[in-house]
């Protein structure tokens, strides 16, 4: 700022302070709010130090600017509801004109959003309401939440076993703001996962009957812990804080979990070099249900396998798990040709144990055909490629 302009700015600020001394008032005093009044003394502690992970919203105002008094009432109310998700703050530029000058604020009121670095701060444009501001700021809230399905839940739970796992069962496809913010608050202390209610097997596994429901899974607890309080940031934070304090931090966050590998988040992933060990060959007590095709299978076949996956998760034999996947015969010819298939798509069920034996599905790739074949396999099929009599697949698995 030029010297003349700077001098004028200071003079205007001093004049406004002296003339309005009686009428001026601090808009942010009282207990019923979570808005932090800022000055040069606390700016760095409140705003600068929070920039690596927090979204801060700052209201720069003058008491006589004609809009801030009404806005402040709304701002204080929203700060109570969304505290923890955002850092709410305000600067009285009548009293702190040097700070406002330093931040380059010349228009009043100005509501500025300070996203996590390296995103630069920006001024809110448009409707001057707390809801409008927070809606814009929402896109900058960081998250360590990963999607958890029946395909990757075991990896998610077993990874870093000393770190408790927090699951949110919901009807949403993406994590809500509260859960995102909590995942950053407990970074390196808790892992956070989002489970859609369509994952019926996981709902049953963890005793969840309605959504939303937060569940904490701890290595030394036989049963998961269900949160029963209000769905508000501070209430959930207090609940989780008790459990996070009883463990040594496992390092990293949910985003570091092996469960974030793309093939572990899909119900029917592709079987290839990178994924093979995680979804089939390195998994204990598993039968690999492999759809062999030339290229990526049509969507209808993938959907059929997803439905079969749901069926098997409900009827799964204790100790035996079924992983569904597909393999491109044109890419993985050496492996796929082991099955000796004349035509594709078709299904092979492989036991990836030491002897690596398999059977071939004799029918079409439909749910009815798969459910009959998959649940009942011949007792002597361990040494054959096609079934002839009915016996549970798990009985044969130990012989393959």
Task: Give the helix level as a range of percent.
Answer: 25-40%
User: How would you spell out the order of helices and strands?
Assistant: HEHEHEHEEHEHEHEHEEHHEHEHEEHEEH
Oligomer: single chain
Would you report the number of β strands?
16
Q: What is the arithmetic mean of pLDDT?
A: 82
* Beta-strand content estimate: 15-25%
Shape: elongated
> Main beta sheet, described?
5 strands, mixed
What does this structure look like?
The protein starts with a helix and ends with a helix. Strand 13 (346-351) and strand 14 (357-360) form a beta hairpin. It contains 14 helices and 16 strands. Helix 11 (299-315) runs parallel beside helix 13. It has helices at 3-19, 43-46, 68-82, 97-102, 130-137, 153-158, 177-185, 200-205, 233-244, 276-281, 299-315, 333-336, 367-375, 393-397, and strands at 35-37, 56-61, 87-92, 110-114, 122-123, 146-147, 165-170, 191-196, 213-217, 225-226, 286-293, 321-328, 346-351, 357-360, 376-377, 391-392. The strands form four sheets. The chain has a five-stranded mixed β-sheet with strand order 1-3-2-4-5. A five-stranded mixed β-sheet has the order 6-8-7-9-10, with no helix packed on it. Residues 8-12, 16-23, 246-250 and 374-400 have low confidence and may be disordered.
Features:
elongated; alpha/beta; 400 residues; 14 helices
Tell me the layout of helices and strands.
Blueprint: H1 3-19, E1 35-37, H2 43-46, E2 56-61, H3 68-82, E3 87-92, H4 97-102, E4 110-114, E5 122-123, H5 130-137, E6 146-147, H6 153-158, E7 165-170, H7 177-185, E8 191-196, H8 200-205, E9 213-217, E10 225-226, H9 233-244, H10 276-281, E11 286-293, H11 299-315, E12 321-328, H12 333-336, E13 346-351, E14 357-360, H13 367-375, E15 376-377, E16 391-392, H14 393-397
Parallel strand pairs: 1-3, 2-3, 6-8, 7-8, 11-12
Antiparallel strand pairs: 2-4, 4-5, 7-9, 9-10, 11-13, 13-14, 15-16
Helix pairs in contact: 11-13
């Amino acid at each position: 700022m030029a010297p003349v302009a700077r001098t004028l700015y200071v003079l205007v600020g001093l004049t406004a302070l002296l003339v309005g001394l009686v009428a001026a008032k601090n808009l942010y005093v009282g207990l019923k709010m979570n808005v932090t009044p800022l000055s040069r003394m606390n700016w760095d502690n409140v705003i600068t130090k929070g920039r690596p992970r927090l979204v801060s919203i700052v209201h720069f105002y003058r008491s006589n600017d004609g809009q801030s008094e009404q806005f402040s009432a709304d701002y204080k109310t929203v700060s109570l509801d969304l505290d923890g998700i955002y850092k709410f703050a305000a600067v009285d530029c009548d009293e702190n004109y040097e700070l406002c000058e330093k931040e380059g604020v010349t228009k009043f009121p100005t509501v500025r959003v300070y996203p996590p670095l390296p995103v630069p701060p920006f001024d809110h444009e448009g409707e001057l309401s707390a809801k409008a501001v927070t809606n814009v700021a929402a896109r900058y809230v960081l998250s360590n939440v990963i999607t958890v399905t029946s395909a990757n839940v075991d990896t998610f739970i077993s990874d870093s076993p000393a770190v408790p796992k927090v699951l949110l069962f919901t009807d949403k496809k993406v994590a809500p703001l509260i859960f995102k913010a909590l995942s950053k608050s407990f970074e390196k202390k808790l892992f956070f996962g989002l489970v859609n209610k369509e994952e019926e097997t996981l709902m049953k596994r963890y005793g969840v009957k309605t959504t939303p429901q937060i569940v904490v899974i701890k290595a030394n607890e036989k049963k998961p812990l269900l949160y029963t309080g209000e769905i508000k940031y501070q209430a959930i934070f207090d609940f989780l804080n008790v459990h996070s304090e009883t463990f040594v931090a496992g390092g990293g966050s949910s985003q570091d979990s092996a469960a974030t590998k793309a093939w572990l988040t899909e119900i029917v992933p592709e079987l290839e070099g990178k994924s093979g060990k995680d979804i089939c060959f390195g998994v204990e007590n598993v039968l690999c249900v492999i759809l062999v095709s030339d290229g990526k299978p049509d969507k209808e076949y993938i959907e059929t396998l997803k439905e079969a996956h749901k069926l098997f998760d409900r009827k799964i034999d204790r100790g035996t798990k079924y992983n569904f996947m597909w393999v491109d015969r044109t890419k993985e010819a050496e492996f796929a040709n082991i099955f000796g298939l004349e035509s594709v798509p078709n299904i092979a069920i492989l036991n990836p144990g030491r002897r690596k034996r398999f059977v071939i599905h004799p029918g079409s790739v439909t749910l009815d055909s798969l459910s009959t074949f998959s649940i009942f396999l011949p007792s002597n099929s361990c040494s054959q490629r096609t079934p002839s009599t009915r016996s549970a697949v798990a009985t044969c698995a130990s012989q393959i």
